[in-house]
Amino acid sequence: HDMGVIAEITNKVAIMRYGVIVEQGPTKDVLTNPQSSEGKSLIISVPPTNKKINRFTLISPEGKEITLNSANLTKNIIKTWGVRETSNRKILNFENVSKVFDDGSLLKKQDNKDMVKALNEVTFDVFEGETLGLVGESGSGKSTIAKIITGLIKPSSGKISYYNDQLYNDRNIYQPQYSRGQVQMIFQDPYSSLNPRFKVRDIIAEPLKFYQKDLSQQELQSNIHDLIDIAGMSRQSLDRYPHEFSGGQRQRISIARALATRPKLLICDEPTSALDVSIQAQILNLLKDIQDELHLTMLFISHDLPVIRQMCNRIVVLKDGNVCEINDSESLFNQPQHSYTKQLINLMPKIESLV
């Protein structure tokens, strides 16, 4: 579903829907001037590589424009969260953080053979209200950073601060009391990140029950309804199981679950990489709208440079666990400073190459 790759390596292309080819022809003709509503829906959803846009224009396969009910979103967010103000305060600080993995062998520990340095003295800040992007090839350390922030793995050295509190104490033990419920994560794979035995109602209710134990049953159900509304799904979906939904719908459920604790920092670990471009655009628009309404801070992880450009205010470029460059989004794309950043941008598949 990568239109940039299709544009650069194919001569002919066919667009399918429900197992039927609805349009086919030379790649340049189909991608630059699609005739079918399905083709138009796909092409208009592709993140542009040469500029930043405010939000994606969405067209359904039936040719109708898709819009999010922003008034409904605002109403439900204010009802559920209240009005949240933001400043330019530093919400997260990574200071000289390193992470070394090994296989547990004493011999290898003694001679340092086969030790993998996933992070090498990584330093960066995240400020309230911004979206900071982490970008780099597979194995660059992006997901390792997310796992360290959430306490899933420990750093080997360095300091991580959430506001003014250290997330790891002097014995390198994670201290969840400082970020409990305030840091949430949306995972890459919507097919494995939801418990298949739980109905959607129970999936969203679980963090609410854990972090807000004093909620009455009526308040609990009201919160669940507001969260599924914010995610753009019907309340009838609450009594269904994850396997009954598409990938995009499951990711909306994941977003509702992540928002249940009213987080200040939302970590998005390649949240759209498993989705086709039209569904990806819907999810990215939803995240943009939620951030605008909630003044949410996001750490957005991806190897998809066009998506990173559309979503992020600033970008950290990683390679082999090292920070190559940190810059605001447009400066990085228009005037990259590091040779690796230049290489990434030059190698980025571009649908605009057909024009």
In brief:
35% of the residues lie in helices and 23% in strands. The chain is of the alpha/beta class and 355 residues long. A six-stranded mixed β-sheet has the order 10-11-12-7-13-14, with helices on both faces. A four-stranded antiparallel β-sheet has the order 6-5-8-9, with helices on one face.
Protein architecture, described:
35% of the residues lie in helices and 23% in strands. The radius of gyration is 21 Å and the shape is globular. It has 355 residues and is α/β, with parallel strands linked by helices. Helix 4 (70-81) packs across helix 10, helix 7 (200-211) crosses helix 8 (217-230) and helix 7 runs parallel beside helix 9. It has 2 domains: 3-66, no CATH class; 70-354, P-loop containing nucleotide triphosphate hydrolases (Rossmann fold). The protein has helices spanning 3-9, 27-32, 37-44, 70-81, 106-111, 142-149, 200-211, 217-230, 247-259, 277-294, 305-311, 329-334, 339-347; strands at 12-17, 20-26, 58-59, 65-66, 90-101, 116-127, 131-135, 157-162, 165-166, 183-186, 265-269, 297-302, 314-319, 322-328. The protein contains 13 helices and 14 strands. Residues 105-109 have low confidence and may be disordered. It has a 6-stranded mixed β-sheet with strand order 10-11-12-7-13-14, sandwiched between helices. Strands 6-5-8-9 form a 4-stranded antiparallel β-sheet, with helices on one face. Strands 1-2 form a two-stranded antiparallel sheet.
